[in-house]
Amino acid sequence: MDLKEFEADNSVSCRLASSVPDICKTEACCLGIDEAGRGPVLGPMVYGICFCPVSKKDDLKELKLADSKTLTEAQREELFIKLDEAKSFVGWALQVLSPNTISTSMLQRSKYNLNAISHDAAIGLVQFALDSGVHLKEVFVDTVGPAEKYQDKLSQRFPGVEVTVRPKADSLFPIVSAASICAKVARDHAVKGWNFPEQMGDVDADYGSGYPNDPKTKAWMLKYLDQVFGYPQFVRFSWSTAQTLLDSKAVAVHWDDDEEDGEKAAARQNNTSMLSFFKAGSKTSGPQGNTHQPHRFFTERRLQSLDTL
Q1: What class is the 4-192 domain?
Q2: Where does this protein hold a divalent metal cation (predicted)?
Q3: pLDDT band at 7 (very low <50, low <70, confident <90, very high)
């Protein structure tokens, strides 16, 4: 799977797609929707669709597809190759949502929660299929939130298309399993080949599954926490796991116009001051007491600390 477009700038989201088979433009088609990477604190979330003619459902079953979560990475790769080889009657498209997009959306002043992001990604992909000429008759999707409410929303948005929303749809409908495999393979490739624009040098790639409760993921997040600038964009800083570590390990920021009670003031005095990171000298002390070079924010702007004016 070619992710060069996303890898060129992984701070923003992008859409990837196969060609649309001619048969999908003339025969009534079914389409499945699923996602990969909703829960992890690391990496992108990928929404995928897969579509084929209704008359080819049995051909799709012969590929012996299954929910991507029940398959090994090697099995998913093999099945994706089979799907790609079936391009005479199978097409797919992906919406790769960067961690930065997810975090800034969820933390903006007008809240845009993960369910709304997911719904809009799914709707956008269905519309993309229609705009690409797919003769769409049926849509099958795994639920996000209450199934009936989501089904009504999609049915109203796409009148004339029969919409079925079910929990565990990726294990019930082969076309959704196909979408699940496409999404999961894309996420695996994106995470493995992640390009860190922060120029962090040789980054340890042993970050586990990326889920918040994974000890390897927690250890990686602690290791690469910058006390001033927080995390690289690989991390979803809107997740509570990231927020907790930032609150406990990063430098406290104090605003002079904040009203503080005695307890808050005392807590602030026990934390390292932000000003300590702007003292003279080219090195600062990290959370583990190790020195490190100034953040790229300073070096790119050729900024130096001064002790006198």
Answers
A1: alpha beta
A2: 34-35, 142
A3: confident
